[in-house]
Write a structure and sequence with these properties.
Length: 149
Amino acid sequence: MKIAIGCDHGGIVLKPAVIEVLKEKNIEVEDFGCYTEESVDYPDFALKVAEAVSQGKADLGIVLCGTGIGISIAANKVKGIRAAVAHDMFTAEMVKRHNNANILAMGGRVVSPELAAQMTRKWLETEFEGGRHTNRINKISAIEDKYFK
Ligand code: RB5
Protein backbone atom coordinates (compact mmCIF):
# COMPACT_ATOMS: atom_id res chain seq x y z
CA MET A 1 0.00 0.00 0.00
CA LYS A 2 1.23 3.45 -0.91
CA ILE A 3 -0.24 6.73 0.35
CA ALA A 4 0.38 10.17 -1.13
CA ILE A 5 0.37 13.04 1.34
CA GLY A 6 0.27 16.79 0.79
CA CYS A 7 -0.34 19.87 2.89
CA ASP A 8 -0.12 23.64 3.07
CA HIS A 9 1.29 25.79 5.86
CA GLY A 10 -1.98 25.47 7.80
CA GLY A 11 -1.86 21.68 7.78
CA ILE A 12 1.84 20.97 8.11
CA VAL A 13 1.54 20.75 11.91
CA LEU A 14 -0.35 17.44 11.48
CA LYS A 15 2.00 15.83 8.97
CA PRO A 16 4.63 14.24 11.26
CA ALA A 17 1.99 12.52 13.43
CA VAL A 18 0.12 11.26 10.37
CA ILE A 19 3.27 9.97 8.66
CA GLU A 20 4.24 8.19 11.89
CA VAL A 21 0.99 6.19 11.74
CA LEU A 22 1.62 5.27 8.11
CA LYS A 23 5.18 4.15 8.89
CA GLU A 24 3.92 2.10 11.86
CA LYS A 25 1.64 0.29 9.43
CA ASN A 26 4.48 -0.28 6.93
CA ILE A 27 2.71 1.89 4.37
CA GLU A 28 4.91 3.48 1.73
CA VAL A 29 4.56 7.28 1.83
CA GLU A 30 5.10 9.80 -0.96
CA ASP A 31 5.27 13.28 0.55
CA PHE A 32 4.44 15.96 -2.03
CA GLY A 33 5.10 18.84 0.41
CA CYS A 34 4.93 21.52 1.52
CA TYR A 35 7.93 21.13 3.79
CA THR A 36 8.05 24.44 5.72
CA GLU A 37 5.56 26.81 7.37
CA GLU A 38 6.05 29.41 4.66
CA SER A 39 2.71 30.45 3.13
CA VAL A 40 1.79 28.40 0.05
CA ASP A 41 -1.34 27.75 -2.02
CA TYR A 42 -3.16 24.55 -1.02
CA PRO A 43 -4.50 23.74 -4.54
CA ASP A 44 -0.93 23.06 -5.72
CA PHE A 45 -0.54 20.25 -3.17
CA ALA A 46 -4.10 18.98 -3.54
CA LEU A 47 -3.46 18.52 -7.26
CA LYS A 48 -0.27 16.50 -6.74
CA VAL A 49 -1.92 14.11 -4.28
CA ALA A 50 -5.15 13.82 -6.27
CA GLU A 51 -3.30 13.09 -9.51
CA ALA A 52 -1.20 10.40 -7.80
CA VAL A 53 -4.38 8.68 -6.55
CA SER A 54 -6.38 9.21 -9.74
CA GLN A 55 -3.55 7.81 -11.88
CA GLY A 56 -3.07 4.79 -9.59
CA LYS A 57 0.43 5.87 -8.53
CA ALA A 58 -0.83 5.87 -4.93
CA ASP A 59 -3.61 3.74 -3.44
CA LEU A 60 -4.95 6.51 -1.21
CA GLY A 61 -4.15 10.10 -0.28
CA ILE A 62 -4.12 12.39 2.73
CA VAL A 63 -4.36 16.18 2.42
CA LEU A 64 -3.96 18.72 5.20
CA CYS A 65 -4.66 22.46 5.31
CA GLY A 66 -5.95 24.86 7.97
CA THR A 67 -9.46 23.44 7.94
CA GLY A 68 -9.14 20.50 5.53
CA ILE A 69 -11.82 22.21 3.44
CA GLY A 70 -9.97 24.15 0.74
CA ILE A 71 -7.55 21.34 0.01
CA SER A 72 -10.39 18.79 -0.23
CA ILE A 73 -12.42 21.03 -2.56
CA ALA A 74 -9.37 21.29 -4.83
CA ALA A 75 -8.65 17.53 -4.72
CA ASN A 76 -12.27 16.79 -5.62
CA LYS A 77 -11.79 18.59 -8.96
CA VAL A 78 -9.73 15.62 -10.17
CA LYS A 79 -11.77 12.82 -11.74
CA GLY A 80 -12.18 9.76 -9.56
CA ILE A 81 -11.34 11.54 -6.33
CA ARG A 82 -13.57 11.38 -3.29
CA ALA A 83 -11.79 13.62 -0.78
CA ALA A 84 -13.62 14.06 2.52
CA VAL A 85 -12.89 16.13 5.61
CA ALA A 86 -12.94 14.38 8.97
CA HIS A 87 -12.79 16.27 12.24
CA ASP A 88 -13.56 13.58 14.80
CA MET A 89 -13.52 9.80 15.15
CA PHE A 90 -17.08 9.42 13.86
CA THR A 91 -16.47 11.34 10.64
CA ALA A 92 -13.11 9.56 10.15
CA GLU A 93 -14.98 6.24 10.21
CA MET A 94 -17.95 7.35 8.11
CA VAL A 95 -15.94 8.86 5.26
CA LYS A 96 -14.66 5.34 4.59
CA ARG A 97 -17.67 3.26 5.66
CA HIS A 98 -20.26 5.20 3.64
CA ASN A 99 -18.34 7.45 1.23
CA ASN A 100 -15.31 5.26 0.47
CA ALA A 101 -13.19 8.42 0.51
CA ASN A 102 -9.94 7.77 -1.33
CA ILE A 103 -8.45 10.95 0.14
CA LEU A 104 -8.74 11.89 3.80
CA ALA A 105 -8.61 15.64 4.54
CA MET A 106 -7.94 17.16 7.97
CA GLY A 107 -7.37 20.65 9.33
CA GLY A 108 -4.35 21.70 11.37
CA ARG A 109 -6.36 24.56 12.88
CA VAL A 110 -9.23 22.23 13.79
CA VAL A 111 -7.73 19.05 15.23
CA SER A 112 -4.63 18.17 17.23
CA PRO A 113 -1.82 16.03 15.81
CA GLU A 114 -2.85 13.28 18.27
CA LEU A 115 -6.45 13.26 17.02
CA ALA A 116 -5.27 13.41 13.39
CA ALA A 117 -3.16 10.29 14.03
CA GLN A 118 -6.12 8.45 15.59
CA MET A 119 -8.42 9.49 12.75
CA THR A 120 -5.88 8.31 10.18
CA ARG A 121 -5.78 4.90 11.87
CA LYS A 122 -9.59 4.72 11.99
CA TRP A 123 -9.94 5.64 8.29
CA LEU A 124 -7.33 3.05 7.28
CA GLU A 125 -8.83 0.31 9.43
CA THR A 126 -12.47 0.89 8.42
CA GLU A 127 -13.96 -1.07 5.50
CA PHE A 128 -16.31 0.43 2.91
CA GLU A 129 -19.78 -0.99 3.60
CA GLY A 130 -20.81 -1.31 -0.07
CA GLY A 131 -24.46 -2.19 -0.76
CA ARG A 132 -26.65 0.91 -1.06
CA HIS A 133 -23.57 3.10 -0.65
CA THR A 134 -22.10 1.66 -3.85
CA ASN A 135 -25.16 2.91 -5.75
CA ARG A 136 -24.66 6.37 -4.28
CA ILE A 137 -20.98 6.44 -5.20
CA ASN A 138 -21.87 5.30 -8.71
CA LYS A 139 -24.23 8.28 -8.89
CA ILE A 140 -21.34 10.58 -7.93
CA SER A 141 -19.30 9.03 -10.76
CA ALA A 142 -22.23 9.65 -13.13
CA ILE A 143 -22.15 13.35 -12.20
CA GLU A 144 -18.42 13.36 -13.02
CA ASP A 145 -19.09 11.69 -16.36
CA LYS A 146 -21.71 14.31 -17.15
CA TYR A 147 -19.62 17.37 -16.27
CA PHE A 148 -15.92 16.44 -16.49
CA LYS A 149 -14.50 16.77 -20.01
C1 RB5 B 1 -4.56 29.14 4.69
O1 RB5 B 1 -4.48 30.31 5.43
C2 RB5 B 1 -5.93 28.50 4.82
O2 RB5 B 1 -6.87 29.27 4.13
C3 RB5 B 1 -5.91 27.09 4.31
O3 RB5 B 1 -4.98 26.35 5.03
C4 RB5 B 1 -7.20 26.32 4.41
O4 RB5 B 1 -7.73 26.37 5.69
C5 RB5 B 1 -8.19 26.57 3.38
O5 RB5 B 1 -9.27 25.96 3.32
